[in-house]
From TrEMBL:
Signal peptide: 1-19
Membrane topology according to the record: Multi-pass membrane protein
Annotated organism of origin: Crenobacter oryzisoli
InterPro entries on file: Gram-neg_bact_OMP, Gram_neg_porin_domain, Porin_dom_sf, Porin_Gram-ve, Porin_Neis
Signal as UniProt keyword: yes
Protein name in the entry: Porin
Pfam families from the UniProt entry: Porin_4 (PF13609)
Subunit-level organization: Homotrimer.
UniProt keyword annotation of Glycoprotein present: no
Annotated localization: Cell outer membrane
Annotated Porin domain residues: 9-364
Alphabetical UniProt keywords: Cell outer membrane, Ion transport, Membrane, Porin, Signal, Transmembrane, Transmembrane beta strand, Transport
Gene3D superfamilies linked to this entry: Porin
C-alpha cells in the first residue's frame, strides 16, 4: 500500500475516530568529535599487530541522540475508568541503526514504551514494553542530550531501561506529590540449568517518589532473578536521587549501587553498551571477577548536577564518580572512574533547543590499562553541538 493511498484512507476517517489519538515525538541530532569506547573504532596492538575494538581513536560524526515518534490515546469507559494505549518508536535521523547509532535503536518496531492499559481512581495498569521507574520518573541528575559519547552521564544511568513482557502498576496519588510504582517483566524462555531444571529470569522493579515546592526525592530499584553462570543468583540495581528543580534552578544529587554477575559485569560497571564492545572486553570481566564466572561484581556510584536558566540560556555542570569495584566482597583497588560534563543549552523556542557540551571520563589505572589496551590513554572525551525539536 503506497503512501498516497494511506493518506487518503486517513483523510476519509470520521473525525470522532481520530479524536483521541495524539501524535508526538522528538527529532534531535548533533555534530560531535572525540574518543569513546562506544564509537566502536578499531585499533592495532603494537606488540603483535592484532586488531581489536573498541579503541580510543578520534572520530567526527553526526549522531542521532535519541529521536523518536509516538502515538497515544485513551477512551472514556465511564465511571472514572479509561482505556489507555501508546506506541512509541525510536528513530535514527542520521541514517544508521543498532551499534552504528548513538541511541542503539535496532530495526524492530515499538522499540520504546508501548503498552495498553486501564486507568481509574484506583491507579493505572499497563501491559507491554514498559520503562522502569528509574527510566520514566528519575534521571533529573542526567539532563544532558547525548548519543554514543561521554557528554552525558550514560554510565550512571546505563541500567535505566524498559522491561519486555511487562506489567506495571502506578498507584494514585493518595498524598499530593507522592508516587508509587511496581512492575514485573516475565521470562518467557525459562532457560534450562545444567541440572535440567528451568530457570526464571524474570525482572522486577519498584519506585517511590515525592515532590513538593520544587524539592524532590526518588528511589528506584530493579532486579533480575536467576542471573550468573549457574542461573541461580539475583542481580540488582538501585539509585536514590534528591534535589531541587524550580525557579530556574536545578540541583540534583544521586547515589546508586549495582550488583551483577558474569559477562554482564562489564556492562554494569562501565556502562559500555554495544555487543561488539561486550565481546572484546571479556578480558576486563575476567580481571574483575578473578576468573570466577559466577562471581558477583558490585560498584557504588554517585553524581551531582547543577544548572541555572538565565533567559534562553541554561549553563549546566555534572560530576560523576564510580568507586572501586568489589568481587565476592573483595575490593579491587583502582577500578573506578571519574567523569565530568560541562555545557550550555539555548532555547530557540518552546519546542526547539540547541546546545554545546563537553564531557570527559577518566578510568582509574587498574581498569583503564585493560580497557584501553595498548592505546596509552585512560580517558574518553566528547565535544558536541546539537539541535533538538519536540512536536
Amino acid at each position: 500500500m503506497n503512501k498516497k493511498l494511506i493518506a487518503l484512507l486517513l483523510a476519509t476517517l470520521p473525525a470522532a475516530a481520530m479524536a483521541d489519538v495524539t501524535l508526538y515525538g522528538d527529532i534531535e541530532a548533533d555534530v560531535e568529535n572525540g574518543k569513546a569506547l562506544n564509537y566502536n573504532q578499531q585499533g592495532q596492538n603494537p606488540v603483535n599487530g592484532a586488531t581489536f575494538s573498541p579503541a580510543l581513536k578520534t572520530v567526527s560524526k553526526i549522531d542521532d541522540t535519541g529521536s523518536y515518534i509516538g502515538f497515544k490515546g485513551n477512551e472514556d469507559l465511564g465511571n472514572g475508568l479509561k482505556a489507555i494505549w501508546q506506541v512509541e518508536q525510536g528513530l535514527n535521523v542520521d541514517g544508521t541503526s543498532g551499534n552504528g547509532s548513538g541511541n542503539f535503536y535496532g530495526g524492530t518496531w515499538a522499540t520504546r514504551d508501548t503498552f495498553v492499559g486501564l486507568s481509574s481512581n484506583f491507579g493505572t495498569v499497563k501491559l507491554g514494553h514498559i520503562s522502569t521507574y528509574l527510566n520514566s520518573d528519575m534521571e533529573k541528575v542526567d539532563p544532558w542530550i547525548y548519543g554514543a559519547g561521554v557528554n552525558g552521564l550514560g554510565t550512571l544511568t546505563y541500567n535505566d531501561t524498559r522491561l519486555k513482557n511487562a506489567i506495571r502498576y502506578d498507584a494514585p496519588q493518595f498524598v499530593p506529590g507522592l508516587k508509587i510504582s511496581a512492575m514485573y517483566g516475565f521470562d518467557e524462555t525459562r532457560t534450562l540449568r545444567a541440572d535440567g531444571s528451568r530457570s526464571d529470569q524474570g525482572q522486577y522493579a519498584f519506585g517511590l517518589g515525592y515532590e513538593n515546592s520544587g524539592f524532590y526525592g526518588d528511589l528506584g530499584y530493579a532486579a533480575e532473578r536467576d542471573a550468573g553462570a549457574n542461573l541461580n543468583q539475583t542481580a540488582y540495581y538501585w539509585r536514590a536521587e534528591a534535589g531541587y528543580n524550580a525557579n530556574n534552578l536545578l540541583v540534583a544529587a544521586a547515589y546508586q549501587q549495582t550488583k551483577t554477575y558474569g559477562s554482564n559485569a562489564t556492562f554494569a560497571i562501565q556502562g559500555v553498551g554495544t555487543a561488539n564492545v561486550a565481546q572484546d572486553l571479556a578480558n576486563v570481566n575476567a580481571r574483575i571477577n578473578g576468573g570466577d564466572a559466577n562471581g558477583d561484581v558490585k560498584q557504588d556510584e554517585a553524581a551531582l548536577t547543577v544548572g541555572y536558566t538565565i533567559g534562553a540560556f541554561t549553563p549546566m555542570a555534572s560530576f560523576a564518580w564510580g568507586g572501586d569495584v568489589k568481587t565476592n566482597g573483595t575490593k579491587l583497588n583502582d577500578t573506578g572512574y571519574k567523569q565530568w560534563v560541562l555545557g550550555v543549552n539555548y532555547a530557540l523556542s518552546k519546542r526547539t533547543n540547541s546546545y554545546i557540551s563537553y564531557g570527559q571520563k577518566k578510568y582509574d589505572s587498574g581498569i583503564g590499562n585493560v580497557l584501553n589496551f595498548a592505546n596509552g590513554t585512560d580517558k574518553e572525551n566528547t565535544v558536541a553541538v546539537g539541535l533538538q525539536h519536540k512536536f
